[in-house]
Amino acid sequence: MLVRLALRGLAPAALRSLAPALSAGVVHFSRPLHTSQQHLAPVPPLPETGGKVRHGVIPEEFFQFLYPKTGVTGPYMLGTGLLLYFLSKEIYVINHETLVGISVVGLLIYAIKKFGGDVAAFADKLIEERVAALTDVKDSKTNSLQKAIENEKKEQWRVEGRYYLFDTKRNNVAMLLETNYRERLFTVYTEVKKRLDYQVATQHFMRRKEQDHMINWVEQNVRKSITAQQEKESIAKCISDLKVLSKSAQAAV
């Protein structure tokens, strides 16, 4: 409980004075100790490469942290004082294991100096190959997603054009309906005209027949009313008129 309170009280002020890499490490160290909603806060991005170190293992941030308070020799004096304190209080006792440790550290340093470059190049090559493979996977996935986006846009464009297609089809259907309506009107007009023409022709035929019948009836009655004597007199009158006309014509000539 006291550790949590100390970290909560000191973390904001101390993190501002630390370097970015060291502050990120402190944040990651103190994060599991928090149980409130603060663990949902965004985490600072971690550096892609390791920071500078001195003597192979001591971070540069440690020296930069102590420089404002102890000066340039402060970190070295702190390390020397701690070593002497451990030795004087016999917290650490020098024995054969110390010599073995020094030998192992020396061998490690020699191996690092001798083969570190080759191992690092091999590791970098493996990392580059892995990154290239992941990049290819990412590019292929990106290309497939880009194609999917383009296809989706094309389908959306087609969906938008579907309304124009439907409008065109509606117009075509309306034109067909209008054409059928006008054809039916023309058919009705033609049939009605035929019937009316038939009625007119029938009336004309009836009238002509009535006129012919009336003329025949009048002629028959007139002929019945004329006697034989009247017919002879009319014929003689016509002949005399023709003779007079012929004489006048000859005199005129």
Describe the structure.
The chain is mainly α. Helix content is 82%, strand content 2%. It has six helices and two strands; from the N terminus they run ααββαααα. The chain has helices at 2-17, 20-30, 60-70, 74-88, 96-225, 228-252, and strands at 53-54, 58-59. The chain has a two-stranded antiparallel ribbon with strand order 1-2. A hairpin with a 3-residue loop joins β1 (53-54) and β2 (58-59). α1 (2-17) packs antiparallel against α2.
List keywords for this structure.
253 residues, mainly alpha, two-stranded antiparallel ribbon, 6 helices, 82% helix, rod-shaped
Order of helices and strands: HHEEHHHH
| Percent of residues in beta strands | under 5%
Largest sheet: 2 strands, antiparallel
Helix content: over 70%
Shape type: rod-shaped
Task: Give the N-to-C terminal Cα separation.
Answer: 165 Å
Mean pLDDT: 80
Q: Strand pairing plus helix content: what structural class? A: mainly alpha
The tally of helices reads: 6
Largest sheet, order of strands side by side?
1-2
Model regions low in confidence, pLDDT < 50 over at least 5 residues: 1-34
What does the radius of gyration come to? 64 Å
> Strand tally, please?
2
